[in-house]
Amino acid sequence: MKKIHLYCFVYFLFLPLLAQSQVKSKIWYDGNTRVMYNRDALEGVLKETDTVSTRSNGSGFTIVDLGLHFTPISDIEISSEIRLRNEFGGMWGNRSQVELRTLSAKGVVNNKIAFSVGDLYLKQTKFTLYNYDQEFSLYEPSVFKFYRDFINYENFYQSNHWRLQGFQSNFSYNMYNLIEQIDIDGFTARVRGLEWLGDPELLILGGSAVFRLNNKFNIGSHYINSFEVRSSANTTVAYHNPVLNIQLSYSGVSKGIPYKALLEGGFSKRGWDGDSLAPEIKGNFIKGSIYSESEKGIFNMEFRYVDTDFRSIGAQTRRVDYNNINTTYPYYSNNYTQRKVTMLDIMSDPNIYNQSLSTSLMNYNPMYSAVSPYGDATPNRVGLIAQIQKVDITDFFSAKLQSQYFSEVIGQGTTEKRRYNKSAVYSSIDLDRTLSLKNSVIIEGSMDVEMVKRGGNDFEKIDFSSILYSGSILIELIKDLKIVAGAKIFSVDGNEFVAERDIYDQINDYENKSYDSKETVLIGGLQYHFTDEIYFTMQYNQFNVLDNTNIQDEFNMGRLIFMFNMNL
Questions:
Q1: Whole-model pTM over 0.85
Q2: 284: buried, middle or exposed (CB in 10 Å: 19+, 13-18, 0-12)?
Q3: Taking a C-beta distance cutoff of 8 angstroms, is the pair 219, 248 a contact?
Q4: What is the pLDDT of residue 333?
Q5: What is the CB-side half-sphere exposure of residue 18 using CA atoms within 13 A?
Q6: DSSP per residue, 110-157
Q7: Is 238:218 a contact under the CB 8 Å cutoff?
Q8: What torsion, rounded to 10 degrees, do the Cα atoms 422, 313, 118, 222 define?
């Protein structure tokens, strides 16, 4: 309550000043409002056998994120976002929170050099600084979009940018000789602050330079360096990880079809100054791709090689942190078993996600991401990718396709190498067009398969496969009011060796894990769109997790959920 009174006092104190300043400056608002309520209940056998956990529990909140933009002069903008949150069940300000969610300032110097300070959204290349999407998001039907939007918004995931705090500046310079234009961008940010008797301060420094020789040919260089400031802590050890990327791109037309060819490569170095036991490793990568976009569709072919020792914290940091405890029934059964992170949590729980760059390779679960757990920057991979990002077969039927074939550069724990395959397909059918219906009826479906194989003796063989089926249907009853239904069915079978690493990410041992499980998500309900950015949905969700290697830990749950979302 004291915090609310303080914010109210500050607001009313500066309100007259803001009102007077509108004569010479501009103030505008944006933000987001979300109301969410869900009631979770145990189902199935678990409802009868679990006598410790609550039969059901409900929770919900109202959130208003008010973004304020203030322009004192035409070249300066100050932005902030204040969050007002009220948990359901609180009265007279009880269980209410007020917090400053973002704060930044940006401007332009002499109409040439742009700068930003405070909260920044940064992205470079897929090998230097890139925030890869979470598991199960590839070709996901749109009926699950409200969960994905919720998770991405709460964790500041915007178009694969990482949210950091620091300073950024960029400018362009036009030339009239061999180089038409030079684009320069640089930034510095603080990844980890001071810790009492802990690790030293961690900073990140990066920059990009793109030379546009003409309308067809560009040369780009991207650099990023993450390093610890040794003097900021009582330690003699400091971490460093510089990464350099060079890109060559050419745009052309072949037989009336436009295309873009990209060739890029680079290297990384990683070590700990002052630690005689720490290794200093160097790695490299190379990637070549051809991209074409035309009326027939969008096509992409790619070759990629990533060395075993390539390390880049800006590109290899994962979103899902399997060390975090999930929100929904984190412990269950009479044995008070800690529930593992599953497809349910990856799909709907923002609290298991990570918002900070990691200096070490984060743990991952091969069940959900065996082929490329660290995206394009996954080390120890060489192979090809073929992708049809969009193709309109008819005016009512469209499809997407992707196929990946990789192998290890070197074997892990054996001379035999793993072989990886990932294939995914998505299709969408507008039944209202083909059946000449008045209201829209859309059916979506996708399939995602991952396989890992390794030969050799029985003690080193790997035979692993996972498959995800996803589907949805949207039936419009009246204008903008739809019945929605969807399903995700995920199954995994086989074995895989999981590496155990030390503090330097060096492999110490391997654990041979067996998998035989199935997870199911079913949803159904109503959805109404006032606009594309303002909608509400009310649904019933059913979740089931069955691990056949440990049947007594089967988890069944039903959820009734309501969400209202409005982007201002």
A1: yes
A2: middle
A3: yes
A4: 85
A5: 13
A6: TTTEEEEEEEEEE---TTTS--PPPTT-TT--GGGHHHHHHHHHHTT-
A7: no
A8: -80
